[in-house]
Amino acid sequence: MTTRPDPDATAAGRQPAAAAEPGHRIATTQVCFSLAVVAVAGLGFVVPGLFTWSAAGFQPRQAIVPLVQLTMLGMGMTLTVADFARVATAPRAVGLGIACQFAVMPVAGWSFGRLFGLPPDVAAGLVLVGACPGGVASNVMTFIAGGNVALSVTMTACSTLLAPLATPLLMRWLAGTGLPIDVLALFRSILLMILLPVVVGLVVNRFARPVARRLQPLLPAVAMTAICLIIGITVALARDDLAAVAGSLAAAAVCHNAVGLVCGYAAARASGLAEPDARTVGIEVGMQNGGMATGLALGVLKSPAAALPAAVFGPWSALAVSVLAAVLGPAAGNADQSS
């Protein structure tokens, strides 16, 4: 993640404030962030003690939920009521994207978990990644790929609102046989870890706009640092599991991401959406909220192994979309067009 769209700009259907920066600078930052994630993950694997120490009863794993909450608070401070209301002006695009996200990705996670023979906890983690809503990074990647940023923000916001119901039910359906799933515990955790910080951030942006504007330049760095720490802790906690399944998990994550990108884009084009909107839907379907998946895996499922898919899927999906954007070039058509 590098930056978030400017609320006033997206409310008007324009490109975000980041548009003032050269696109290649944002893409370069995203690639550097992906490399930083890989480096921190490598440290977690080679020197796990950096992330598994204990002092005065505190362990780094206890910081994961607060770090996710901090990231979601930052996301909320970039949202406005217009981001949610915009669904009325683009019901087909938003509805199609969210339907694909919560239908294609969880089933694909279950399928690839079985196809690549992942252990039950890791396979459940892949389903969990697929059952999570879109994350902040998808908005940045949509900008880089020449998509419709306003539509991306709206889809992320709406899928996040649906997550407290959709994610626990999908996990119970698809992962309940391999791992005990407490639907109510997942529901409560998503409310406290994801929805509450987003709502608080939204309220701050609405009623204390000067405060939100002063904090917004700091949010990208805070979020990137939080994500790096989360991944480092996850890898350190599940080092042995990762060593046993690294190849198959990487292959499953690559396939999972590819199916989301392709199915989202193909469904959007088949329904008649313009190229920028189709790219947006593809990215929103193919990129998930890895921080949320990690927090739920460790906080509710109590399984570091179940958190591993998010640690692999997140950096890979950002890198894959960056490469695709460079290869495909600018999208033809009006990026503000939605259906």
Would you identify the regions where 5 or more consecutive residues have pLDDT less than 50? 7-20, 334-338
Q: How many strands, which pairing sense, and closed or not: the largest β-sheet?
A: none
- What is the CATH C level class, in words? Mainly Alpha
Based on CA atoms alone, the radius of gyration comes out at: 18 Å
Query: N-to-C SSE series?
Result: HHHHHHHHHHHHHHHH
Apparent shape: globular
Compute the number of strand runs: 0
Structural class: mainly alpha
- How far the N terminus sits from the C terminus, by CA atoms, comes to 27 Å
Number of domains: 1
CATH topology: Na+/H+ antiporter like fold
What would you say this structure looks like, in words?
- This protein has 339 residues and is mainly α.
- The protein has one domain: Na+/H+ antiporter like fold.
- It is built from 16 helices and no strands.
- It has helices spanning 7-11, 23-46, 49-52, 64-76, 81-85, 91-115, 120-131, 137-144, 149-175, 183-207, 209-215, 219-237, 239-270, 275-286, 290-299, 304-328.
- Helix 2 packs parallel to helix 12 (219-237) and helix 8 (137-144) packs parallel to helix 16 (304-328).
- Mean pLDDT is 88; it is low at 7-20 and 334-338.
Summary of the model, kept short:
This protein is mainly α. Helix content is 75%, strand content 0%.
